Amino acid sequence: MARGYHGEMAYLERTAETRLNPATLLPGVRSIICVGLLYKRTDGYQPLAGRDNRAPVVPTAADATARAVGRVAQYARGVDYHVVLHRMLRQLALRLSAALKDVRWTWRACVDSAPVLERELAARAGLGWIGRNTCLLNAGLGSYILLGELLTTLELAEDEPVTERCARCTRCIDACPTQALRAPYELDARRCIAYLTIEHRSAIPDELHRLVGAWVFGCDVCQQVCQFNHSTPLGTHPDLIANLIPPEIPLESLVTLTSGGYRRLTRGTAARRACLSMWRRNAAVAARNAASRPDAPRTDSA
Ligand code: SF4
Ligand code: SF4
Q1: Residue at 58 is within a domain
Q2: Considering every ligand atom, which ligand is closest to the CA of 73?
Q3: Is 112 known to be catalytic?
Q4: What is the pLDDT of residues 213-223, one digit of tens each?
Q5: Which pTM value belongs to this model?
């Protein structure tokens, strides 16, 4: 934030103190149970087996816009993860309560819904390490993991952090279409496609338009190229991997999206984080990218 990397996300500044002190969210908090839920999909543009992922990144603007479709990050295509994980954390708390009948304790469930340093907490809890792409990464499970926390007043034994295993790899940094990963572990959100298409309310800066490619909501590139995501298990929670939003959406339908169409498209998903005008804006950028390809079909009569 000191470098302005958070862009227009002023809420990060407003909640910085709370983020550093979980007791603000749950007085008397002593332990935080960190959980993760896999959301990797079969149709999420996984790299092909044997493909060198340092080579042109999947998805490229070229192959996606060839068919003039917009792409949506995997995590946003199923039922809103806030709802799914919150429900599961509540079930966990109730089961713990049943098991700890004689113990007085309180809890609070958080899923990207309260100012919690969830990725750092997950790393300290041993769920994985923070990769150079700034995502939490687990050697056996990859990084397509949604995080949640149960803040509790229980005094629990700590788990141990795991050892970082990025070693000398820089694939995610090399592959980022916008050079948003300025250095290992250093994300300038102002250049990140996920930020630009979801959090950034103003116009997307002209100089980044072309680099956004076909993404209309989020971006998976720095996870797709990561070696640890290639043979990891798929998500199994039916709600998370539900196909509420298709992997490809014709841009034609998005640039003219109506309020009714927007409601139908985003109903029940985290994709509603971007409002209608942002979806249209993102689609217009992707459509211009599609049209500017050298081999794009000409629409004039000449
Ligand atoms: S989400 Fe996309 S734009 Fe953002 S850092 Fe990763 S690769 Fe770069
Ligand atoms: S692509 Fe390489 S450097 Fe980036 S998170 Fe994965 S292992 Fe780490």
Answers
A1: yes
A2: 1
A3: yes
A4: 999 999 999 99
A5: 0.90
